[in-house]
Write a structure and sequence with these properties.
474 residues, 25% strand, alpha+beta, 6-stranded mixed beta sheet, 20 strands
Length: 474
């Protein structure tokens, strides 16, 4: 509830709404994470009303789109105006794109994109540096009208290439025949086994089949090469001089070179569906890779191309930021000999044992990162918030009251984490994102870090606020 209030308050501090783009009569609403609310045009998602408002369709619009709002961490709000109800959408901490359905028919009538407030270049740089570990997640939703040209080509091409690379790694060398009893014929039926086994037992619909093993099927490798060449072409055409697009294009070339022994062949969608459904023991890498090929076949805006509509997807920016901060501290620890443990792998988990389970409000504490060096412990928590930049630019006195409380909560949390460790030296660090220009300015003034020391229980805890550049907004 507090997070919702904070988000609402932040949204109200902005006086402008983000623009709406119209593609083939279908509006594409554009917002920024943790940014101002986006107004939904009633006349685009509900039939005309006498007074020009939503009429009875506001509730159905919210209901039809509730799943999309949850997926993208968007908070819908209903207000009032002289013309009737007004629906606004308050972006949260996720970037992405989702379709929006009509309040009358439930059919896709438009779309919503939430862009990262620190800019696409920063997101691309982090994804590139962290190996796409926190890549965008695709949603089980219809295509988003007009979204394919609103995001850089690598946003969706990157995860697709990662899937295809994993698929190729999973392929075993050599060529062998697989045998499996299926409900539908595949390859050739082993009639001897069918007559002596299935038919003799009365299981006439169980068909023992012999077919090329999917993990070594040369046809699959031809399909992969076709998909790689398609994405490579689109990245070069649309990516221009974008460093992330060029690096992904280079990855595509390396993967294509590994398939030099086969020629590309565009697959049919029904053939890919049969591959995914016809093998009950299909490995995850193969399944995800074939699904990725199907998306490329559908031309869902993966490489930029000429498509207008794109896949529905979302990217938790807090998770992305945590991934980047982890990579920074791993790199620094490698230079100084530190041992790094991370919360995402369950390496820093501290269970809380409540005397009365009915009063349990929190099950465990999980610091994001813990670095141990000899007799020192460094506890790190990554926060995808603009607190450090706001303090620098506006000063503590001009901090909004709710932002102050959120910052205090961050401090209390990292100090609670620090109390979990017994060491001669304990450092507790909160790491906040900064725009590239702000970081450069603070770095030059040696103000990208701020320290305080706390003395308690016979030991000293060094509290640190640190800023790292997320990326420019260009």
């Amino acid at each position: 509830m507090n997070a919702m209030k904070s988000r609402t308050h932040t949204a109200r501090t902005h006086s402008k709404w983000r623009p709406t783009r119209i593609v083939d009569g279908k509006p594409l609403l554009v917002g920024t994470d943790h940014g101002p609310p986006v107004t939904v045009p009633a006349h685009k998602f509900a039939p005309p009303q006498r007074v020009g408002d939503w009429g009875p369709y506001a509730d159905t619009f919210l209901r039809f789109n509730s799943e999309a709002f949850r997926a993208l961490d968007v908070q819908p709000q209903v207000g009032s105006s002289a013309g009737g109800p007004v629906i606004t959408l308050v972006p949260g901490g996720r970037a992405g794109a989702v379709p929006l359905r009509s309040g009358m028919t439930g059919q896709v009538q438009g779309g919503l994109i939430v862009k990262p407030r620190f800019g696409w270049p920063g997101v691309g740089r982090i994804l590139h540096e962290t190996g796409w570990h926190a890549a965008p997640q695709f949603l089980e939703s219809p295509l988003v009208p007009g979204s394919a040209r609103e995001v850089p080509p690598w946003v969706l091409a990157g995860p697709i290439l990662a899937r295809l690379e994993a698929l190729l790694r999973s392929l075993s060398s050599g060529y062998r025949q697989a045998e499996e009893t299926l409900l539908q014929p595949r390859g050739s039926i082993i009639w001897k086994d069918y007559l002596s086994g299935s038919l003799a037992r009365g299981a006439w619909h169980h068909l023992p089949c012999r077919f090329p093993d999917l993990t070594t099927d040369p046809i699959l490798r031809r399909h992969v090469r076709w998909a790689l060449e398609r994405i490579h072409r689109d990245l070069l055409v649309v990516g221009g001089t974008d460093i992330v697009a060029l690096s992904l294009a280079a990855l595509a070339v390396r993967l294509i070179d590994s398939l030099a022994d086969v020629t590309p062949m565009m697959p049919r969608k029904d053939e890919l569906e049969r591959r995914m459904m016809g093998n009950r023991v299909l490995g995850d890498a193969l399944l995800r890779g074939i699904e990725a090929i199907a998306w490329v076949v559908d031309e869902r805006g993966l490489g930029g191309g000429n498509e207008r509509d794109g896949l529905a997807w979302m990217l938790p920016l807090e998770t992305l930021w945590e991934s980047y901060v982890e990579s920074v501290y791993r790199r620094e620890a490698a230079d100084t000999g530190g041992d790094v443990k991370v919360g995402r792998l369950g390496q820093t988990l501290f269970p809380l044992h409540w005397s009365d389970p009915t009063h349990r409000t929190l099950g465990h504490l999980v610091p994001d990162i813990v670095v141990k060096r000899g007799k020192s412990v460094h506890v790190v928590d990554a926060k995808y918030k603009a607190h450090l930049a706001e303090v620098e630019e506006s000063g503590w006195r001009r901090f909004e009251a709710e932002t102050r409380e959120a910052h205090r909560a961050d401090l209390h949390q990292i100090l609670a984490y620090a109390s979990l460790y017994e060491a001669d030296e304990v450092t507790a660090t909160l790491v906040y994102p900064l725009r590239h220009s702000t970081f450069s300015m603070l770095k030059e003034r040696k103000r990208d870090r701020s320290y305080a020391e706390l003395f308690h229980g016979g030991r000293t805890v060094r509290l640190e606020l640190r800023g790292l550049p997320f990326g420019s907004t260009s």
